[in-house]
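Dear colleague,

Thank you for sharing your sequence with our group. We've completed the structure prediction you requested, and as agreed, I am returning the results in plain text so they can be pasted directly into your records. Please verify that the sequence below matches your submission; if there's any discrepancy, let me know and we will rerun it promptly.
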Amino acid sequence: MIRLKITAIPRRLLCVAFAAFAAWAVAQQQEQALRSPEDVNGFVQSAMVDVGIPGAAMTMIEGGQINLARGFGRLDDTGNAVSAQAPFQIASVSKSFTALVVLQLADEARLAIDDLVVEYLPDFRMADSAHAGAVTIRQLLNHTSGFATLDGNRLHGIGSDDPGASEKAVRQLGDSRPIAAPGERFQYSNANYIVLGHLIETIEQKPYEQVLDERIFSRLGMANSYAFKPLKQTAEAAKGHEQWFGIARQNHRTPGRATLAAGGISASAEDLGKYLRALTRADPRIVPPILARSFADAEFTGYAFGWHHAMVDGRRVIYHDGLSPGFRALAAILPDERRAAAFVMNLSGILGGNLHIGAVHHALGLHPVPIRPSGGIITAIWGSLATTLCFALGCFAALRKAFTLRHTPWNTAEAFRWILVVVPSAVFAGGAYALLVLVPRSLALDFAGTGVFYPDLAAVLLATAAIGVVWAVVLPILLVKRPKAAA
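Please find the predicted structure tokens below.
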């Protein structure tokens, strides 16, 4: 029997091969991670045309320095070009600013984040008064207070210019039913940051927008950033666009004062670059030690102090996204690499796609994500339109037949006749309730909120529900009026 002698690869050769492979892997990772401004510009411009985004702006940080800040497309329907100085609504990315101010106040010993909220806001209430009395500031910051997502989304506060709006909003939250004990469960809710906004105004004795300007915008030279309305002259702001079945329509919505702290800040790409640069450097002008420690914690994943912490492609990513009527935004930081990127666009809607995510992933060398809306979403929106049309045709045909037969005697037993009257009425009334209440609730919204964020979907729901109500009311009337069969 012949035996083959297998000789081991010399250790030195193995080490050389391993080192070469490691060098190649590092080079590949760097090539993926390092995106030039020209590359990012080309990606965004091509994707905007593909998805149909009116306007956008982006900033990138490399090595703690801004290496890209520019605008793309148009500000509004007049065709004015987007500049790096043009403010965009950044929606829920605003929460990071609110949390930053709260942590600054804690650093100044004007509050402690583990203090009870009622120590500063004695009128803070929830449906369970004992629960409200046990909620801490940290739990508001980290969305573990027990507020439900729906609680925050029913107070969208569009257009309210009332100086006492935040206090009134907190009072309106008094009927909120806790979903869990304080600190027990995470559920993202604008309600937490609405309360924090009122807390800031109470401690500072100043409007929220003035506090933000003094504590963050002015310190960093963010000349084209503001909350609610500009306190000084700024560049022309981008106008939001909402999608109506895939067609972008300009809107004129402005954030209400009640929800400023949860999602009411506007900022330019240039200013977002200054903000992210300060965060990546732990700039002592605005970043207190507690936030710097949170960013440095390599083990933590979850939500803390206005930011999501996650592992993406084996890299630590700290991020926050945002959605407001007419705008989408995403800011992300790679704390271990001192890199960051932010993208804002003036389009929202079910068919708006995910360019804000795709652009940031591309800039930071993360895995690619689909930027176009999924086939399921497209099918759902057009399917809902088809359903409404079929429902309308069915209703028309049934009512027409019932009207035609209104003088024709019944040929059925009395009990069955009432079944034919009551059951369809109950089904269609229940369907209308589901469309106007349950479907919006599945999106963590009420119907009014659905109209604000997804107007095309709200129009379909309302039209279909209205047809259901007509069917539920008129059809039984016509059936009841039909004469009984002769004895």
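Summary note from our side: The chain has two domains: 37-364, 375-481.

Kind regards,
the structure core
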